[in-house]
Amino acid sequence: MINPRIDTTAGVIVQGITGRAGRQHSRIMKDYGTRIVGGVSPRMEVRDVNGIPVFPDCRAAVDATGATACVALVGALQLLAAIQEAVAAGIKYLVTPTEGMPVHDALKALHLTRDADVTWIGPSTPGMAVPGQVKLGFLPNDSLRPGTLGLMSKSGTLSYEAGYRLAQRGIGQSVWVGVGGDPIKGTRYADLVPFYAADAATRGLLIIGEIGGHEEEDFAAALIQHRFEKPVFALIAGRSAPEGVTMGHAGALVHGSHGSFESKRVALNAAGAQVFSSLGEMVEGVARRL
Amino acid sequence: MYIIEHDAKELLALRGVPVPAGCLVEAGIAIPAQLPSAGPWVVKGQITMGGRGKAGIIRKAAASEELERHVRSILGTTVRGRTVSAVRIEQQIRGAAELYLSLLLDAASGGVRVIMSDRGGVEIEAVPANEIKSEVAPLNADALAACVLRLAGSFQNVAAHALRNAGQRLARIFLEFEMQLIEINPLFVYPDGSWVAGDAKLVSDDNALPRQAELHALVESRAGVYPEAALKLAHGFDYVVVDPDGDIGLLTTGAGLSMMLIDELRTVGLKPYNFLDVRTGGFRGDPARLVNVLKWISAGRHIRIMLINIFAGITDLGEFSRLLVTALQQVPEFKVPVVARLAGNGLSDARRAFEQAGIKLYTELDEAIAEVQRQLGAA
Question: Scanning every residue of chain B, which has its alpha carbon at the shortest distance from the alpha carbon of A101?
Fold first, then answer.
């Protein structure tokens, strides 16, 4: 079973810490309470970012700090190598926000992380959070609130909006995982169904999906297979998207009935999930049940 | 990216896959006097959609008058909102059996799924499951080749031979071009075991384009056919005109939230013009992306207002708002009112910049949408 509820005392390193995103978000994560213990950058002249020591590679960072988790903030074509490096150094929990990773690279990384028993969240993910305790990635503080709703999302921005509105209504999250919008990824909705079923702090589950691929349908099948008994809600974007055009995310492509809104709605309803096609309805629907 | 059949076949032919002799005829261009084959022919509308035969944009022609008539009638046809702007004329294949062969990235099982059947053709979805053979292989050449051999071995004589031969060739192409999908249906096979790809559906990976020189060149040379991929290559973000008659330009970031906003605007009867995932996190202090977007939106014939919606995660709203003010000054042809909704990192900085520029700023999306409705209704 994949367990995304990271140990809040785990040491976290940041690959690419000397870049723009690395500098900014290592600080924001640290301020949130995440134990950022080191950074990685091949730029030898930088030894320290925001008071965080910088190492030349993952192996050195892990040896010096005992880190077990890693956030990789590197370019899309460098991401596979960064994942290989982190896994070889013994990292067990890996978050990779980078957008644009080639999907064949993602498939290679998937085999690598599975074989090494590494929890991999990404690519193209805003990250994950246990609100009030720890976050790995970019999830904005305005949207995070400790609570009982499990949340999984393909889209970063849409989940920020959803989390923010739910938080305004007093509904917070137990564990929030941005699975990401790419077709091949480390962790899919269906992979986390057993975790959310067993997690005592989770009283309901919201997935924020979008057109394209088969992931919402596979999630629906997993709900049935695991006899998931908590209330499940789904918000699906892209109902009015044109066929045959990739809508921003590499996975968001409808061809024929494959990946269509209707296909997802039918599968989710059959598994007992409530499906919404607007943010306002979703917030009201969740508020009524939780 | 979904590659049109003609380009897919040219690509496959260059790698030694037999395809029917054919040529592309675009709207407004005459049919070549010298066709690549003698009749009979098939005229096939080139759009990135399945079900073309059922939609009436694939037709057979025995004589040249009939050919011209089909070309004229198919060009310009609209199918589910997409207009056919080119047709492929190719040799009609006769006296061959129809098989099915595909390779696709299978997200659920984390491998490459190979699918074969000796009952291909347009009714493939009606073929009983036990007559379709399928197996998942890891993403490497040896494993994929072995998988193709095993599957092909479960068919008879000529079908087995053709599926083995075609499958091995296509597996190499799948890896070389980093494809997400290759589907050949029908795969024509003659009684002597020789074969030809009757149709070809290829979905490539936009993310791999920077290191796929041939596909990169294809997109650049055919920007009219692949406008979204060409734009992304040139500018690094996604922009799609979803309704040429729309009157609301959207300045948005994030694919999911941008799609959702379009859905919600349409639900309340409004007409958004474009989808945009401008990736505000990647501006690096340069207003160029915003300048381009403002120009493109200005080019919409019916644009009456622009709605900005940014929920900042990786983005710094202070930087975004300063760059937007600069960009607005650089695009004098942009004249419509702007309604903005911003939330997240750096909001207070953004508030100051927008106040100075006289842009109305909301923090709740529903309020911003209501303001757009009010302004459109009042005008």
Answer: B207
Q: What is the 3-state composition of chain A as percent helix, strand, coil, each rounded to the nearest 5?
A: 35, 20, 40
The minimum CA-CA distance between A143 and chain B, rounded to whole Å, is 8
Asked whether the beta carbons of residue A240 and residue B228 sit closer than 8 angstroms, the reply is: no
Q: Alpha-carbon distance A43 to A56, whole Å?
A: 7
Supply the ipTM of this predicted assembly. 0.89
User: How much is the pLDDT for B11?
Assistant: 97
- Report, as an integer, the average pLDDT of B166-190: 97
- Return the axis-axis angle of helices A261-270 and A215-225, rounded to nearest 10°: 10
Q: Locate B366 and state its tokens.
A: 């529903």
CA pair distance B62, B57, nearest whole angstrom: 16
- Please list the residue range(s) of chain A that carry CATH number 3.40.50.261: 140-289
- Of all helices (H) and strands (E), which one includes residue A107? helix A103-115
Q: CB atoms < 10 A from the CB of B83, how many?
A: 12
Judge whether B138 is closer than 8 Å to chain A, CB to CB: yes
d(CA A99, CA A181): 9
Percent of chain B past pLDDT 90, that is, above it, reads 81
**Numbered ranges of CATH 3.40.50.720 in chain A:** 12-121
Chain B residue with CA closest to A103: the answer is B205
Q: Which of A126, A184, A237 sits opposite B313 (nearest CB)?
A: A126
Task: Quickly list DSSP for B256-285.
Answer: HHHHHHHHHHHHTT--B-EEEE--GGG-TT
Tell me what pLDDT residue B344 has. Answer: 84
Strands (E), B181-304: 181-189, 195-197, 201-203, 238-241, 248-252, 274-277
pLDDT one-digit tens code per residue, A154-201: 999 999 999 999 999 999 999 999 999 899 999 999 999 999 999 999
Q: Which residue of A97, A99, A184 is in closest CB contact with B105? A: A184
Token digits for A201? Answer: 């702090």
Architecture of domain A12-121: 3-Layer(aba) Sandwich (3.40)
Q: What is the pTM of this model?
A: 0.91
Lowest mean pLDDT among A37-46, A116-125, B83-92: A37-46
Which of the two residues, A249 and B91, has the higher pLDDT score?
B91
CATH 3.40.50.261 fits A140-289, yes or no: yes
Q: pLDDT per residue over A57-113, tens digit each?
A: 999 999 999 999 999 999 999 999 999 999 999 999 999 999 999 999 999 999 999
**How far does the CA of residue A284 sit from the closest CA of chain B (Å)?**
14
Per-residue model confidence (pLDDT) at position B128: 86
Judged by CB atoms closer than 8 Å, whether chains meet at A248 and B259 is answered as yes
Return the half-sphere exposure (C-beta side, CA atoms, 13 A cut-off) of residue A42.
4
Identity of the residue in A97, A218, A247 whose CB atom sits nearest the CB atom of B259: A247
Q: Look-up: residue for tokens 């993403």? A: B139
> By C-alpha distance, which of B282, B366, B277 is closest to B316?
B282
Q: Any catalytic annotation for residue A255?
A: no
Residue B296: Cβ-neighbour burial (10 angstroms; 0-12, 13-18, 19+): middle
What whole-number distance in Å separates Cα of residue A190 and Cα of residue A256? 23
Catalytic residue among A214, A226, A249, A255: A249
